[in-house]
Each structure stands twice: as structure tokens, then as C-alpha cells.
Amino acid sequence: MKKLRWVMDGGGGGFWELDVSTPVTLDGVARPVPMAGSGDNHPLPLPLGISRGATLSRPKQIDFFQRFMAAPFVPSYSPAHGFSLQRVLTFPFGDFWFATLLGQFNLQKFVSSITQNGLKQSPDSSWVKTLARQLCNKSLYALNLCSEVLVTPDDTVLLSIEGYGDKKAARKKAVLHHKFLHHNLTVEAAWPELFVDGLGTYWDVPFSMAMDLASTASDSGASYHFSINHNAGRPKQHEDQVTNGVPTTLLPGLCIKNAFAFKKTVDFWRSKASKLKLVQPFDMFLSNPHISASGVLGAVLAACLGNNSVGQQIADDSLHFKPISLRAAGVNSTILADMFASASFSMQHGNFQRLFFDLTRFYTRLDFPSGSKFISGTIQLAQHLYNSQQLSLEAIQAICPKATVSLQQQIAGPFTFRVDSGVTVDLKNSGGWQVNFNDPVFAIEYALQVLGSAKAVAWYSPKQKEFMIELRFFET
């Protein structure tokens, strides 16, 4: 089974567009919507607690819970479907073919139906038959049929189809994963494809096809990311969510992105004290106390053709320094180039070996998604200082980074508590500067000690009102 990682534990410095875990669909995945405007090539920092890789499918996660953790059902919750229970049936087709049938039962809807209607008995039927009729309600069930084929040791093909009993439309997906020596290639086609924007709104795009080539993540050195995305059809809100409008980057069109970055990691302190003898850490990756920092500097080039290029053409006259942008006359097309940067700080105390309070971990990351906005804000502030003018709040806001923080604390044994959140400072608030915690995600983690570094995670997002239990591995 492939290993899966957290974004903060070896990601690409914040400019990778990683998928997001969500219980809205049975396969548990939604793709992020890129921002519009000059920062379009750098998506909003999504909560770390719900980020996930692409190689560990949801059916495999549930199969693991059933086989090795004696979990008859895996619960989840979302506002669209309520509290549900999931179970998977595995078809043994050998070592190279993994087929599953994932079933979901809407327990909340079933209990609500019983509470409202009761088990009314008719003269010719008993309460057992009445209960059976309630259980035959198709809207209580959803199914996902998934097939994963290991074509070669480096190639995996995934085919899936899922649907809900009360809906005629089915969700289909085909994914190819190929592992090069130092790169990973993913080709995916979905109809419809589920996206989530920075405000937490879900969108269904009738057809979406994407190709993503990314270099293997490392602690230091250069990294490369190339992606092509094609959307077709008019996007619509998922489950009739209320929103202000369709994100322009989801409109029909073709978008090609190419990003290059260089990362440098520095250890200020790393413990050389010996660990407890004959005691295995609960997680090998969380057994080294340290204080370290890392920085990423990169550039991105994007070319869009179609209606989705409209978002790239939005001009901000307040910017003194603008990103390089070219537009072709007569057609909807845009070429845009910009820079980005991020800085992160990590601190850990404890070896995660003892039963109580042997792990305290803090992590924060500052993202500068658009170099043009940062330079423009810096120039404007310098002019105001030189002319002894009052500093512009818009210019100060332009140079403020997007911050993400994470705190993890051991509770007892393999159990830890974790909270991840985005942090923003609102300088335009009439009552003064205001610090906002955006999209916090709370999680209880259970370290699977026998696997070296793996965890079962139960997380809850108050903003999205979503709850999910997942299995996570660190990705190599």
C-alpha cells in the first residue's frame, strides 16, 4: 500500500494543488479551485487537516479499518447527506487487481424517517414489514464500484463509478498513476468532477480532464510541477449551495501551468540525545525533537485558452508593479507569469515514546502567492514613507502573507490531538486590526505503531460541518 503524507511533512512549499478530503462524495476527494486574478496560479492555502494524497483510495482505507482495526462500519458526516455509515466489500482477484464495492447507509435520514412517521402498522402488516419498507427506501443508500489494476510495478489504473439511490446521475472517474524515478505522473478524467473553492463551496463541473507531473518532494533542492487541465460544460453548485457566482477558473477552457521552485531547509537545533532503549516510538517520523525552518522561492507560468481565461484578465490599476501578462486579440486567451515564495517554521519537543505528553509539535507556514502584489505593496509603502504620507492599509494588506498554523499534542499513548487553521489579519476592520482563524480543523490521531509511521485520523471541520475518519500514510 502506498504511503500518504500531510502537506506540512514534506510538501512542495504551498504551491502544489493537492486534493482535499471530504465526505460529500463516496470516494472522499474534491479538487481545489485556483484563485482568480494575479494569484490564480497559487491556490488559497487549504486546511492541512483535510489535505490528502491521491494514491490511497477511500475504499482501501475502509478495507484496512475492517481488516486490521475491527471496525464493522466507518462513520462520516456532511450537511448534504447527514450522518452515514460506510462498509466495503472486497473482491479477491489476485495481487494485481483490487476491486471493491463501497456501500453507504444514511443512518440520520433513516432515524429521522422513523421519528417523524413512526412504525405505523396497517391491519394486514406487522411492524417488521413496516420497518422493512422503510429500509427499502432507495434514498438511504449509495454505492461506489471501484477497480484498481496494477498494470506494472510503476503503473496503476483506477476506475470508479458511484451514485445515490435517489439520484439518476452517476459520478464516474478514471485515473492513471505512473511513478518515474524522480517524478510522479497522474492523468485523471471525471464526469462530473467535484471542486471546492476557498470559501468552502462545492462545484460540479460536467467534464474535467487533468494531467499532473510533479517531481518527488525533498527537504531541500529544486522541484518542478507541470499540469494541464481541461474543463467542459457549465459548472453548477453541488447540492444547491448558496454562493455569489461561478469561479471563472472553472469555466470551459484549457489551462497549462508550469512551476519551478527551490527549497532550502535549515536545522537550528536537532536533539542528539539517545531514545529510550527497547521502546519503539509510536511514529518514527515524529520521534526527533528539533527546531528548523525552510524557505521556498519559485516562479510560475500559466497559459489559458477559453472562457476560463477571463479570470486572468482582471486588471488591478492600484498595482504599481504588475505580473507579466499577454493577451491575444480576438480570442479568449491569456499568458501570465509571476513569482511566489513561502517560509515555514517547525518545532517539536519529545520523542513520542512515553505514555503521556511526550510529543508537542508546532508548525507555521507563511505563503506569498504573488510576487507582483508583494513588490507593488512594498513600493507603495516606500513612497508613502518617503513623502511622509499616511500608510495605505491596502498596501500593507498586499504584503501580508497567508499564514497557516498547526499544533499537535500527545494525549495518552498513541493518541494525539491536532488543530490546523489558516490565520489572516484584517487591517481594514473599523475597530482596529483583527486576527481571524480561517477554516480550523480539529483532529484526534491514533498512531499505528506496528507500521512505523501511519495513523488513523478522526477530523472535524466546523466551517464545513464535516466529519470523517481516515487512514493516512506518509508518501515516499
Record the SSE blueprint.
Blueprint: E1 20-21, E2 29-32, H1 58-68, E3 74-78, E4 82-92, E5 97-106, H2 107-117, H3 127-135, E6 141-152, E7 155-164, E8 171-179, E9 183-191, E10 193-196, E11 202-205, E12 207-215, E13 221-232, E14 236-237, E15 253-270, E16 290-306, E17 324-327, E18 333-349, E19 360-368, H4 371-386, H5 393-399, E20 402-412, E21 415-426, E22 434-447, E23 454-461, E24 466-473
Parallel strand pairs: 2-10
Antiparallel strand pairs: 1-2, 3-4, 3-24, 4-5, 5-6, 6-7, 7-8, 8-9, 9-12, 10-11, 11-14, 12-13, 13-15, 15-16, 16-18, 17-18, 18-19, 19-20, 20-21, 21-22, 22-23, 23-24
Protein architecture, described:
This protein is mostly beta strands. The protein is built from 5 helices and 24 strands. It has helices at 58-68, 107-117, 127-135, 371-386, 393-399; strands at residues 20-21, 29-32, 74-78, 82-92, 97-106, 141-152, 155-164, 171-179, 183-191, 193-196, 202-205, 207-215, 221-232, 236-237, 253-270, 290-306, 324-327, 333-349, 360-368, 402-412, 415-426, 434-447, 454-461, 466-473. The strands form 2 sheets. The protein has an 18-stranded antiparallel β-barrel. β6 (141-152) and β7 form a beta hairpin. The longest helix has 16 residues, at 371-386. Mean pLDDT is 82; it is low at 1-14 and 36-50.
| Number of strand segments | 24
Instruction: Note the run of SSEs as H and E.
Output: EEHEEEHHEEEEEEEEEEEEEEHHEEEEE
Strand content: over 45%
Arithmetic mean pLDDT: 82
Q: What's the end-to-end separation, in Å?
A: 11 Å
> Please, how many helices?
5
